[in-house]
Amino acid sequence: MRSHYCGQLETSLVDQPVTLCGWVNKRRDLGGLIFIDMRDRTGLVQVVFDPDQQALFETANKLRQEFCIRLTGTVRARPDSQINKSMATGAVEVMATELEIISRAEPLPIDFNQQVSEEQRLRYRYLDLRRPNMSHNLQFRAKVTSAVRRFLDDNGFLDIETPMLTRATPEGARDYLVPSRTHKGKFFALPQSPQLFKQLLMMSGFDRYYQIVKCFRDEDLRADRQPEFTQIDIETSFMSADQVMAVTEQMVRGLFQQMLDVDLGEFPRMTWHEAMRRFGSDKPDLRNPLELVDVADVLQEVEFKVFSGPANDPKGRVAALKVPGKADAISRKAIDEYTNFVGIYGAKGLAWMKINDLAAGREGVQSPVLKFIPDAALTAILERTAAANGDIIFFGADKASVVAEAMGALRLKVGQDFDLVSDEWRPLWVVDFPMFEEADGRLYAIHHPFTAPVNVTAEELKANPEAALSNAYDMVLNGVEVGGGSVRIHNNDMQQAAFEILGIGKAEAQEKFGFLLEALKYGTPPHAGLAFGLDRLVMLMVGASSIREVIAFPKTTTAACVLTDAPGVANPEALAELHVAVTVKDS
Amino acid sequence: MRSHYCGQLETSLVDQPVTLCGWVNKRRDLGGLIFIDMRDRTGLVQVVFDPDQQALFETANKLRQEFCIRLTGTVRARPDSQINKSMATGAVEVMATELEIISRAEPLPIDFNQQVSEEQRLRYRYLDLRRPNMSHNLQFRAKVTSAVRRFLDDNGFLDIETPMLTRATPEGARDYLVPSRTHKGKFFALPQSPQLFKQLLMMSGFDRYYQIVKCFRDEDLRADRQPEFTQIDIETSFMSADQVMAVTEQMVRGLFQQMLDVDLGEFPRMTWHEAMRRFGSDKPDLRNPLELVDVADVLQEVEFKVFSGPANDPKGRVAALKVPGKADAISRKAIDEYTNFVGIYGAKGLAWMKINDLAAGREGVQSPVLKFIPDAALTAILERTAAANGDIIFFGADKASVVAEAMGALRLKVGQDFDLVSDEWRPLWVVDFPMFEEADGRLYAIHHPFTAPVNVTAEELKANPEAALSNAYDMVLNGVEVGGGSVRIHNNDMQQAAFEILGIGKAEAQEKFGFLLEALKYGTPPHAGLAFGLDRLVMLMVGASSIREVIAFPKTTTAACVLTDAPGVANPEALAELHVAVTVKDS
């Protein structure tokens, strides 16, 4: 029905007839002529209707915004004075010769040119997706998946599908459950990831696997979470952590080169401990120049318990965050707001110190806690933070985890507030995670229970689990974890040890993961893998503020689809067949 | 860890050192040497261990089937007498120099060389997938999806993901339901297809969409059905049925060329009516030379009600199926069996006629119904079926739908029993389906309620729905429907008419499809699409007997996964959070 897309028209086509199919983006009547901007997925082009062609002009006069039309005309160059440089096709226009109105549009329920609530945008998503930036986001996403697939195909990875209706997976989030009709009272779970299946595929000898696959977590949602999200899921056999990082880094570097013409360079590596120490985060945003500085050692003897308590506690931490040159800019009121802010992360307060005049010694320092800090400690702090006149220093003192979280968050917030974040791409690998973290008196896996430790035997792991490092790696880009993975445990003893440490007893392990433990007995290859969050990666690449901007039909933050009105009330007969009943009246 | 894959070794590598990773496929001890066939996903190669290398030989002596090993050695040419032509690498072998046992294997629970029950195969699927033909099937499937994606990407189709957690879809099969935690008492449905979403994407202007996507139907299973299956889902705007057929035919033709070196040629088209008349099926297997011949017109006057009843009924049919040269081969007992067979499809009997001697007239014909058939009718039947001596003719007389189904099935069965099915690829398009079929006094959509009729207005459609043809098309290959699609309704009036004819009242239409009816108001483009069943297509291409042979982790016929033991009992707390309870005790 068309000879060209709107966005393809350019001066080389001048004087040629073209037929376009698309939508009326905008209509203007000017000097007795009718102008429309006609739109399809490739872009816009201006069309002109001349009143000399009466029948055509009358049809054109019926056009309204978002009518779907088919149009034939001749491409002509615009006069120099009318060239529109903000439009890709702005050097040309189409002189219309034929027009067919394919379907009319009622006045739109959402205005493309005004800010519309996200609720309305999602309710009329099919219209919202006509907006050029949303169309671009999804076209960009399609190009990303295509490029990823080509890279992986070309590198010997096999796209193998794993089940969606499966057994509860052990990632730790809440599962979506699906009642079985044939197995009364039993339920499938939708996968939180294909983790175990991809490991089984390695045991089957497929050597290199990938899948771009939907995963599901029934969690309360945030801006960058959705109940269903998409993973680029990768697993390899006979490859070391370094090799997996090398090939996936190559993939991401190629993607940025191809899609954005950006050279990410070689990704630096940072240990988890260094990341926590310098940035209070396992996904540091390296575009932000602020860093935490540890000062516990110089505060152990002070009489101020807020400092000396954590400074003397092996699990405590005291860290300083210097913000250069912002002593004046950060008022008492701003400090109070930051104090409230770190409170969200569990910090009980926020000590601070403004450096007015270094040459003046103690007199030149303004701080409510100054009186508690002896000269030697003050000098050490000022030296260690390389403080200068006009700087402000914040202090966090608490359990190490609280300090990292609160001061890491403060670092990001201050960086944002004062526009300190540079406009660049800063990828890195975070490595050497601890295997386990302690909470509520028991140990949890930082990655998942199938992650291999670095260089220990099963016996050694059991003897001192908290000291063990895992052979895991996260790819972090501009403060966002875009991917993470690990070398997996490939023998039964080690897997049993990991379960034991996590408090998963023999019976429970057998019941939940018996098939995995069994599979480990039959010549399991060493294997390692990684998964990328596709939504987040694309969100970063297009510069969107939420993953909902790169998903065609996302759910709201209450996990609903306002377009189709899902979830909905189920047919009682269907529920009876599934052997379940609703336990709330007010549905 | 490896320098080569096993399957890559060939004479050009002779005298070169290689390092391989893989499994012990087989071990043989012969003439004081140890031979193993070493396997990875690319194939097998023979490795030789010489007792002169004592330490190496001792390690080799520990090898058992399916040990996972890393091996270094030198490639050498086999002597002419020992070249194994049934092995791709049979011209070479590897003289081992180093061997590392990576992981041991206990004796296998399934024997690769013996017939094993499918239950056992599925329980140990990770081992079953090591068998070369299963490994081949899944590698072949990965190549198919890769080729399909490249074709579609290169032709401007955008891969756009649609939701898995959605509203019940209208395909008619039973939905899998997913209770919502945040919306008490409400349920998502897993999609039977992305039908409505892909139509919405056309309304958004994406122009060409595709997705290789999981779909779900909670139906009782057959050999070629699975609760979750994979569709190659396609939708286009501004393209006619012919254009959609052309581009998808080109895709499939390219796929067969590339994967199997088979030229499918141009696909013939056949109307649904012709397919039903000649083959009693809307997915005729053209490799089978047998055809049905209608004979109702010559039997209207006979006194035998079994024939004259259907012959005079406008909804009846009398059809003959001639099996050339099988009069002797098909005994009375065989005829009884065929009679039982057609009974499965609702036929109340199976009349037959053996042609012993055409020259002898009535005397030369043997048939229990001969006495009811006057000379003129007999002559007409023999002429029309072009009967010859030694032929047998079966007759079906009943409602047209019963005759088509029973005689269509008999045609396939006889074709199989006597090996009449040629060994070739016979694709075709079936077109011009009726819009609706009648059952139990109401009308059902033969495709789905969004299929556009050919050349009628909404008013005309409502006036005579049973006469309307749909603008739908099925791609059939060797008797299997591999794909199907249609032009969609793209205006509100027509969509409302279709719902009305299907007995979907205004209120129900609004409740279920309100968003679609609303979307149709805003400049909907004409659109058309198609979906292929990927599992079936790959099954056909690799010559497997079941789609389970081309799915990594399929469900059993009771919709269970015996490997992971899914579905399983749900945690009561999880169910409480989801506001549902199990209504059966014996779970």
From TrEMBL, chains A, B:
In this chain, L-aspartate is annotated as bound at E171, R217, H447, R488
The Enzyme Commission number assigned here is 6.1.1.12
Task: Give the start-end ranges of region Aspartate.
Answer: 195-198
What are the record's GO terms for cellular component?
A: cytoplasm
Domain Aminoacyl-transfer RNA synthetases class-II family profile, residue spans: 138-554
Cellular compartment(s) = Cytoplasm
Q: Which residues bind ATP?
A: R217, D218, E219, Q226, E481, G533, L534, D535, R536
Q: Which UniProt keywords apply?
A: Aminoacyl-tRNA synthetase, ATP-binding, Cytoplasm, Ligase, Nucleotide-binding, Protein biosynthesis
The record's comment on protein family reads: Belongs to the class-II aminoacyl-tRNA synthetase family. Type 1 subfamily.
Name of protein: Aspartate--tRNA ligase
